[in-house]
Amino acid sequence: MIRFLDFIFSFFGLLFCLPVLLLLYIIGFFDTGSPLFFQERVGRNKKTFVLVKFRTMKLNTASVASHLADSAAITSFGRFLRKTKLDELPQLWNVLKGEMSLVGPRPGLFNQKELIAERDKCGVYAVRPGITGLAQVNEIDMSTPELLAKTDREMIESLTVKNYFRYILMTVLGKGSGDRVR
What we know:
Layout: H1 2-32, E1 36-42, E2 48-54, H2 76-84, H3 91-96, E3 101-103, H4 113-122, E4 130-132, H5 134-137, H6 145-158, H7 161-172
Parallel strand pairs: 3-4
Antiparallel strand pairs: 1-2
Helix pairs in contact: 4-6
């Protein structure tokens, strides 16, 4: 049922948001010269996939977790995208392709060894990663790997269609501030 909802919402989300996506792409082009950001992430069953987002940082910024990135690397347009969570919109493509879900554990980077180990202990990699979830709406980010993995496990165990819609609604309404940047 969740995969069906993911497919329907990502398909229509991409379709109806196309004008917004194009506008953000154009503004992003003038902001950084390269509006889309592609990054290899850890997905379901620890399979690699390429996550796509709108670029919020200057070109050639180190590919590290957000909490390790330098805030000076974030552009002014990037701050707007992060604050409004519009930088996440291109991930609807990842959801449509089945690499992600709208709701699930945020996919980490392969160099986040401590997070990978904690998530392995909790069985988090048995599900598709998501754009949002319980940890995100509670402002728990990848800087606290053990807490994040436990929160992800809690979400997985309690994920119902009702909670699926609840986490999406909370995210759209601005609950959670996204990953911290130092």
